[in-house]
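call fold(seq) -> tokens
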Amino acid sequence: MDPARLIRARALAAGNALVYGVIASVAAVQIVVGIMLLLGVGYPRWRLGVTCLLGLATVVVTKWKYRWEDGANGVLAMATTAVHVGLFGGMLAMVEGPGSPLGPLLFHVAVGSAGRYGLNRNTAVGLAASLGVLVLLGLAPGSWFGPPVPEPERSALWVVMLGGVIVTQFVQLAATRRAYGRAADELDDLRETILRDHTARARGLETIGAKVAHELKNPLTSVKALLQIMAEDAATEDDRSRHVVLESEVGRMQTILQDYLSFARPLDELRNADIDLLSLTEHVTAVMSARARTAEVALVVSGDPTRIRGDEGRLRGALLNLVGNAVEATPRGGTVGASVRPNDDGAMITIRDTGVGMSARQLAKLGTPYVTTKPTGTGLGVVVATATIRQHGGTIDYESTEGKGTTVQVFLPARPPATASSDPSASYEKLSRLELASILEPSPAGVGDPKGPP
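ret:
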């Protein structure tokens, strides 16, 4: 049994004592009052004795029915439900038959099961058994049934039986609602505990990974330098080409390690200064121009000079990630445009590409670490860029259509909030929590950021 179902079952079982106590008390009142009314009209005593025994049997069966309904034995629960309905059918046969004033008792089981568990198999069995009993009573000879109950005793019996059913159903529904409320609280606490445990474990793994990545950086730098020297001294063009490929692969490893380090370590305090976002965007596109020319993608910058307060180095890294993703997602002959516009409270940077675009499912997973459709991507570039923008008090929004491209809108306030400097890791911690929640949920293979980090 899964934890959620176990908690719900335990909560329901905790309320069974109260419900069973009310049902037993109401049944006792119904039996005593019913017997007194029927004795007053001279009803056959043997029929009253059988009816009383059947009523007591329903009380005993109710206890076992609750135990098996809340447990894992569904077959026993359904069998007990059928027996329960059969006992009520026998009571109807003893007192008047199909039109008996005990009629409200017949559907008591099905209605109670529906209110407690919904439309499940046990409820269906209760309803089917109730209808089956009615059919059998309608087909049975009239000589099997007790004589009609005269008025006003007949109406009094209807009131007693219907009133008892209403009271027990009300108490049962109230107890069920309270039980599900307790179960929901326990599940929330369990989810919080699991999330905290996973967060702590993920942080520990990130720390270890960051140390390993940091230790690998220096050896890789040395290997890359040696490969460059060997490429220059290569005897043949084939040897030179092989060295260039090796150098490229080492560079890719350095990029992956740098992305991981940027993601794993908490964000440092912002070093705020006056920034012209248009000049910064032009600088970013100039850096990306070589990659764009290789990919045969046009880079276009437009806008107005817009000044804000922020960390220029951090914002440059975020824009490099976003523009690089746009270039890599755009096929040959496409265009990537970056525009800067002043806003009432800051500035808006829009990066628009004519690339492959993303589906709604891919957008939902955008920014999840290690989820990317790029063969060589890690998905960390967007994570780090988003964390940087949020630490500045800004927002980042994506709009995308498959086959038409993606638009990224970044809003940055005129100056970062005071909390960004006093607690630089706050936005990062919040982001990581959301990312962790998405990681814990199963995601379809290949769904994520089709662009990945540059």
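The CA atoms of residues 231 and 243 lie 5 Å apart.
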